[in-house]
Design a protein that fits this description.
about 70 residues; single chain
């Protein structure tokens, strides 16, 4: 009895998974390119800001230590 319930639940799980994959709306290449450029640009700016803040904190700590 338990084995048939497991098989039924696995079947329904895969059925649900398949239904969810049908709901996915894939973006076109132009939109994907724009979003990729935006993510890379924002990541670069964030990296730069973190580098500046880190350098400033290191200089401040070195100033306090001297």
């Amino acid at each position: 009895m338990a084995e048939t319930e497991k098989k039924v639940s696995k079947k329904s799980w895969f059925k649900g998974l398949k239904a969810e994959f049908r709901k996915i709306i894939w973006v076109d290449n132009k939109t994907l390119g724009k979003q990729t450029v935006a993510v890379v640009a924002i990541s670069a700016v964030t990296c730069g800001l973190i580098t500046l803040v880190d350098s400033a904190v290191i200089e401040f700590v070195n100033l306090l230590i001297k």
